[in-house]
Specification:
EC number: 5.3.99.2
Number of strands: 11
Structural class: alpha+beta
Subcellular location: Cytoplasm, Perinuclear region; Golgi apparatus; Nucleus membrane; Rough endoplasmic reticulum
Strand content: 35-45%
Order of helices and strands: HEEHEHEEEEEEEHE
CATH class: Mainly Beta
Distance between the termini: 26 Å
Enzyme class: isomerase
CATH architecture: Beta Barrel
Family: Belongs to the calycin superfamily. Lipocalin family.
Largest sheet: 8 strands, antiparallel, barrel
Number of domains: 1
Catalytic activity: prostaglandin H2 = prostaglandin D2
CATH topology: Lipocalin
Length: 191
């Protein structure tokens, strides 16, 4: 369970992994947010939608809820603290992750202290004040590759056009309708 929670948090929380300048997308490539401005990206976000090709995600997706994540500079000056509050087993839990800068602005690396696996997360697109689309890749368990797309919102409710944008974004990475979940708001923890 701890490994699953770490993977869930790792994926949910800004797709936490470093990438090269562009990321493979099937036969094509996708770039990180041009001229990424980390200062504008800091602060609170709600994780409102996820999609993944991971078996554990497909098994657990019906029990997942929206979570609140806050990005802040860490005291070491180079990394970011990602603090997430989420509902799990009818209790509020808090998880803090340290995101290391990747090769280019908008890319981050996260190393799980439990599994030792590294995840790469890239902010693919954001307008900073409304939404962000993230792509996470890495391995889980016995080295099984996974990818996850995430939709972050500054508010708990999103417009239909953002839902469509996220669905298209997820499809672009080979994820299907069955892989996508728009997370319901919990009755506690993020209010």
């Amino acid at each position: 369970m701890t490994a699953l929670r770490m993977l869930w948090m790792g994926l949910v929380l800004l797709g936490l992994l470093g990438f090269p300048q562009t990321l493979a997308q099937g036969e094509g490539h996708v770039s990180v947010q041009p001229n990424f401005q980390q200062g504008k990206f800091l602060g609170p976000w709600y994780v409102v939608a996820l999609a993944s090709n991971s078996t554990w995600f497909r098994d657990k997706r019906t029990g997942m809820f929206m979570c609140k994540s806050v990005l802040a500079p860490s005291t070491d000056g180079g990394s970011l603290n990602l603090t997430s509050i989420f509902l799990r087993r009818n209790q509020c839990e808090t998880k803090i992750m340290i995101l290391q800068p990747g090769k280019v602005p908008g890319q981050f690396n996260y190393r799980s202290p439990h599994s030792g696996n590294t995840q790469a997360i890239s902010v693919v697109e954001t307008n900073y004040n409304e939404y962000a689309l993230l792509l996470s890749t890495g391995t889980k368990g016995m080295g099984q590759p996974f990818r996850m797309t995430s939709l972050y919102s500054r508010t708990q409710t999103i417009k239909d056009e953002l839902k469509k944008k996220f669905t298209t974004f997820s499809h672009d990475y080979g994820l299907t309708e069955e892989d996508i979940v728009f997370l319901p708001q919990p009755d506690k923890c993020i209010k």
